Amino acid sequence: MTRYRVDIRVLPRPALLDPQGKAVQHALAALGFAGVDDVRVGKALSLAVEARDTAAAEREAHAMCERLLANPVTEDFVISVVGEM
Amino acid sequence: MTRYRVDIRVLPRPALLDPQGKAVQHALAALGFAGVDDVRVGKALSLAVEARDTAAAEREAHAMCERLLANPVTEDFVISVVGEM
């Protein structure tokens, strides 16, 4: 078994309102960052996962997202196995 | 000017305690995901940034992280300009 570093991004689906994203966008505009829009805010996770190989680590992370880390109705997730530890 | 899609990850620094990460790790263990540790939880942001080129978009995002999006004492951030829109 190898320990893999896995990065996960969980973001609200594009079709849904994202009040936190809007708040960040307005705060950025107030600071002078004018050319910014379509801001979405979600969760970033970094995990160490023990698995046989990269594919198994990704499958395990996928199962974690479906069961706990992401809301299947409102959120999308992206998994990257970024390397061995 | 071009619109770039920029992804930002903001995570608590490795040396700091991350109670949210610990909570997620325990919840995963309770669900049967045993081989998981070193869980860190932070923010994922996705923004559309108007800029002259990729380097300018990245500089802009860097300034946003330093001024608003990340806490310079407790958090690290990673910026990826993922493409034109």
Summarize the structure in words.
2 copies of one chain form a homodimer. Chain A has 85 residues and is an alpha+beta fold. Chain A has a single domain (2-84), classed as 2-Layer Sandwich (Mth169, Chain: A). Chain A contains 2 helices and 3 strands; from the N terminus they run βαβαβ. Chain A has a 3-stranded antiparallel beta sheet with strand order 2-1-3. Chain A is elongated. The N and C termini of chain A lie close together (11 Å). The model of chain A has no long low-confidence stretch (mean pLDDT 97). Chain A binds chain B through residues 1, 7, 9-11, 21, 24, 27-28, 31, 33, 35-51, 60, 63-64, 67-69, and chain B through 1, 7, 9-11, 21, 24, 27-28, 31, 33, 35-51, 60, 63-64, 67-69.
What's the arrangement of secondary structure elements?
Two copies of one chain form a homodimer.
Chain A: E1 2-12, H1 19-30, E2 36-51, H2 54-69, E3 75-84
CATH class membership of chain A: Alpha Beta
Largest contact between chains = A-B, 34 and 34 residues
What is the molecular shape of chain A?
Answer: elongated
Ranges of chain A where pLDDT stays below 50 over 5 or more residues in a row are none
- Element pattern of chain A in H and E: EHEHE
Strand order of the largest sheet of chain A: 2-1-3
How many strands of chain A?
3
CATH-defined architecture of chain A: 2-Layer Sandwich
Mean pLDDT of chain A: 97
Determine the structural class of chain A based on helices, strands and strand pairing: alpha+beta
Classify the fold: give the CATH topology of chain A: Mth169, Chain: A
Q: Tally the helices of chain A: what do you get?
A: 2
The largest sheet of chain A is:
3 strands, antiparallel
